[in-house]
Design a protein that fits this description.
Elements: E1 4-6, H1 9-13, E2 27-34, H2 38-49, E3 54-57, H3 66-69, E4 73-74, H4 82-89, H5 91-115, E5 122-129, H6 133-149, E6 154-157, H7 158-165, E7 171-180, H8 183-196, E8 200-203, E9 208-213, E10 218-222, E11 227-235, E12 251-260, E13 274-277, E14 284-287, E15 293-301, H9 305-310, H10 312-326, E16 334-344, E17 351-354, E18 361-365, H11 371-386, H12 393-396
Parallel strand pairs: 2-3, 2-11, 3-8, 5-13, 11-18
Antiparallel strand pairs: 1-16, 4-7, 5-7, 6-7, 9-10, 10-11, 12-15, 12-16, 13-14, 14-15, 17-18
Helix pairs in contact: 2-8, 2-11, 4-5, 5-11
Length: about 400
């Protein structure tokens, strides 16, 4: 599947990680990670840090799947508001999920500190805007739910939002715990770090076409017949992981994004904050290190790549129009636009860990708008499971959670 189209900003901004190394022989290893995006990279970091021999394989050029199309915002908020998630999964599980995401932002930051590389990681605040009166009522309830849970949150009245951002929103929820980064740079930095240290093998342009369960683990077969014998398999292939799952666990959606020409810094709003809104689907925006503005949204059900791609020009125009309505004084000119495919689950939570009756096959599926923080959690949980260490998050985000 084509996971994105158009001109994803990160691949244009950065030199391509020019790595071509298809697997051409039979090999053995302890753990195979399928997927070289930010999820696979974070899993590789965790396993390498634990001293576990591992291999990363990807059918594409490294990091050019969904990671290339990510707008790379790190927030503790989940697509499903806390008050709604409590209704879906229970209060303890919902609060725990939100707190896991909050901790995950710091954990992602520490990954890059540990390898001595900075993929433009920047701590920024978040404003969740009330789009209308019903949105304001939602925010009042959500504020109470988060406050009761001990989560960092402030409720801002209309005059404060106007003073901070120059936006006429009815109200907003604010916190100063979020972050943003260059997702593509982050994934390639991690993988290159462990390649240089000779702690990792990386095979690009290598499609796993089939697999067989063995007494000691798995035998993976590539499209050209090469075999990888291993004890564990980690599926970090994001929205293409369905072929490894016996049943569908997510719905595919199309999302759209635009990025502006660089603008004068005087036009950038307070503290480079992440901004999103209560509407569904919501509009969201962030800035970049060179004072560009990324705007995303206009999500819709995914049908096929052709239909998604044909919508790109129209959707880009809508996003620009919506942004200019919100910030009429900012001279926004679209420089690039792209469309991507992502997934959502019924409860907004990821799927992490082993699927029932698939021993030693671990899934790191950080679905939804909070994919990177979920990916960090998945990497840690899977590292613990592989080394035999109990992790309560495996139950929280596991495939059996619907039975609770």
């Amino acid at each position: 599947m084509d996971l994105h189209s158009g001109m994803p900003f990160w691949v244009v901004l950065n030199p391509l990680y020019n790595y071509y190394n298809p697997l051409k022989k039979n090999i053995e290893t302890h753990t195979v990670i399928i997927g070289s995006g930010i999820t696979g990279a974070l899993v590789a970091h965790t396993l390498c840090s634990l001293g576990i021999e591992c291999i990363v394989v990807d059918k594409r050029t490294i990091g050019t799947g969904s990671t290339a199309a990510s707008t790379a915002q790190l927030q503790y908020e989940i697509d499903v508001p806390l008050m709604d998630l409590i209704e879906k999964v229970g209060e303890k599980q919902a609060v725990d999920a939100y707190k896991c995401c909050l901790q995950s932002i710091t954990d992602v930051e520490n990954v890059f500190k540990s390898i001595g590389k900075n993929p433009d990681f920047e701590r920024v605040p978040t404003y969740l805007l009330a789009s209308d009166r019903s949105g304001k009522k939602l925010l009042q309830k959500e504020f109470n739910a988060r406050k009761d849970a001990g989560l960092p949150v402030e409720y801002l009245e209309q005059d404060v939002v106007k003073s901070d951002l120059g936006i006429d929103a009815k109200a907003a929820l604010y916190n100063d715990t979020s972050a943003q980064l260059d997702c593509y740079k982050g994934a390639t930095y991690i993988l290159d770090h462990y390649l240089q240290k000779k702690q990792l093998q990386l095979f690009s342009h290598t499609l796993i076409e089939d697999y067989v369960e063995t007494e000691s683990g798995y035998e993976l077969v590539t499209e050209h017949g090469s075999k990888i014998t291993c004890k564990n398999v980690v599926i970090a292939a994001g929205y293409e992981a369905g072929e490894f799952l016996p049943k569908k666990v997510m719905d595919l959606l199309s999302t759209f994004a635009i990025v502006s020409h660089p603008v004068d810094k005087k036009y950038i709003w307070k503290n480079n904050a992440l901004i999103w809104e209560t509407k569904t689907p919501y509009l969201y925006m962030r800035t970049t290190s060179d004072n560009r503005i990324i705007v995303g949204g206009e999500d819709e059900d995914f049908n096929n790549p052709d239909k998604r791609d044909k919508s790109l020009r129209k959707k880009a125009a809508i996003l620009e129009k919506k942004f200019k309505k919100m910030f009429p004084e900012i001279p926004f000119v679209t420089d690039m636009s792209w469309a991507g495919t992502f997934s959502a689950t019924a409860d907004g939570l990821p799927y992490i860990g082993m699927y029932p009756n698939k021993p030693n096959m671990y899934f790191a599926l950080g679905y939804g708008g909070n994919g990177i923080t979920f990916s960090m959690i998945a990497a840690q949980v899977i590292g613990n499971l592989i080394t035999g260490k109990a992790d309560p998050r495996a139950e929280l985000f596991g495939f059996d959670r619907s039975k609770r």
